[in-house]
Design a protein that fits this description.
Helices cover 38% and strands 17% of the residues. By secondary structure, the chain is of the alpha/beta class.
Length: 282
Amino acid sequence: MTRRALEGRSSNLNDLWQQVADLGWFESWTDPSVVQFDRIWHESLVLDTVASFEAFLRDQKPECDSSRFEPGETSGTPAELGRFSATLGQDSLVVSSPIDPFGVRVPSFWFESFHLVTIAGAGPDPYCRLSSAMRVPASALAANKKWKLVELIHESHRLGESDLNIACGHTDCSDPESERWWAVGRCDQSVEVAVARASGLSAKQLPHLGYLAKHEDVSFTPVVEELELPRLRGCTAPAWKTWTLNLLQGFEGSLRRLFNDLGLVGSNLHLVPKYLRSRLGK
């Protein structure tokens, strides 16, 4: 089935989940599900959305156990957090990466069999101008401290893209009494593009999507079902601030790569005499 974004203003979350189910997006779900989320923006709405989705999934797919995963969150009992609630520093693996020769550290539960659902409040981000569903998986890679946010988003998209992505918020980002909205899609990029356009930005104005486009084919045109999102206010960070911060991060990244290369050269200098002897036949 074509990956599509479903956008809605319905105040009844059950109606929204039913629309998703009617599209057949849950038909193949048989494994446990993990709902990952954060509380950076619209905490109350995010938690309501998480609880509503879990209740709907229990009713529709009782065979699919559900766990919660909040990157960086370690409070709560195991029963509250779920069996996939390992913190990154305690339970993680290093896998190869096209960005860093030393690899990227990822949560070990990413290698288990489950359906991953991401729920995030949309709001301004100083490094990406706007962030929503693509930010949460990147937060799970926070142990890679020297990486830029756009690099973390690229790796989380490459290695741990969600089966279902849900962005939510209020039409006025700073007013919790304003109208609520949701954007739901099986493609994280489509959801991000839908939210960006509702905020008055094109996809190419988002640094993290621009970074993705340099490494893979990216569709900046989500297919929209039924309702369009309302006009969103206060969801984006100033362009000058994002440009400045990314310029500084790029400079830091260049220095990091330089020192990594110098370290590799230093660690292999002792092999030079042996190489020369072998080449000279001595």
